[in-house]
Amino acid sequence: MSNVVKTALLLGALSALVMFLGEMLGGGQGLIFGFFFAVAMNFGSYWFSDKIVLSMYGAREVGPENRLYQIVQRLAARAGLPMPRVYIIPQPSPNAFATGRNPQHAAVAATAGILEILTDDELEGVIAHELAHVKHRDILISSIAATLAAAIMMASRFAMFWGGGRSDDRQGSNPIALLATIILAPIAAMLIQAAISRSREYDADAGGAAIAGDPHGLVNALKKIESASKMVPLDANPATAHMFIIKPFSAQGLLGLFSTHPPTEERIRALLQLGRS
After folding, report:
1. 84 near 110, Cβ under 8 Å?
2. Rounded CA gap, 201 and 63, in Å?
């Protein structure tokens, strides 16, 4: 299934869910509000999802004098891609992601922690992986999924403060509807993440190895990131977990059952096999 079709299905399914939540909470008026909110959310997530996600993590843009920028610039030229904007996230946990609606409006972000622990060869492997996502046009669906999931989880928190849903316009508070709404929202966010195919990570690993010219930099980087992330978890929004090169370990509990990434050991095995072949 192409990413264009996946994006359309996500937007349609999430619009229907937002309208359903509106009706559960506010009856007919809530349904109308949900419709207009869904329209605004779809527009905003398409055009501004990259800015929303970057702002979630307080990312700051860096220029040509920065080591990360120089590596991105070199690899983007090698991959035949437009130069993306480059951001650093001020967090000690090592991780990275790409965002933007197309290669012409892409951004690559890496944490301060990943810059501290990786050598240039390892960092090249990580950045090449993210540029492979850009080249494969994975980043639009990832960014939209993150924005929509965050919006739905926010709506569930509003539901807790509103004090109850309405079964229709004439009846009063419906605690069962409220409970269903609060439970449904985080489950929907997890399902959105699960809709992002695990195969895209394998494809980006292989594409990144081709861009970097060698899979071993990414292999060593994945080992270091996985080990360090367990000791210093990323303070991440669960709605954006699927965007990172390795799933943030701060997403725990039931969220762990809906993993959006293949096991790191399997990714390393596939990369080593790629190197041998």
Report:
1. no
2. 28
Among all residues, which ones are annotated catalytic? 130
H-only helix segments in 213-263: 216-231
* CA nearest to 129, candidates 69, 204, 72, 201: 204
Give how many domains the chain has, as a whole number: 1
Residues 6+ positions from 99 with CB-CB distance below 8 Å: 49, 50, 53, 54, 106, 107, 109, 139, 142, 143, 243
3-class DSSP state of 92? coil
Instruction: Give pLDDT tens digits for 31-57.
Output: 677 677 767 766 766 677 789 899 999
Q: What distance in Å separates the CA atoms of residue 261 and residue 200, rounded to the nearest whole number?
A: 9
Whether residue 158 contacts residue 18, with contact meaning beta carbons closer than 8 Å, is answered with no
pTM: 0.75
**What is the 8-class DSSP label of residue 96?**
E
Q: Residue 134: which domain range? A: 3-276
The SS3 of residue 178 is helix
Q: What is the distance between the alpha carbons of residues 45 and 25, in angstroms, rounded to a whole number? A: 23
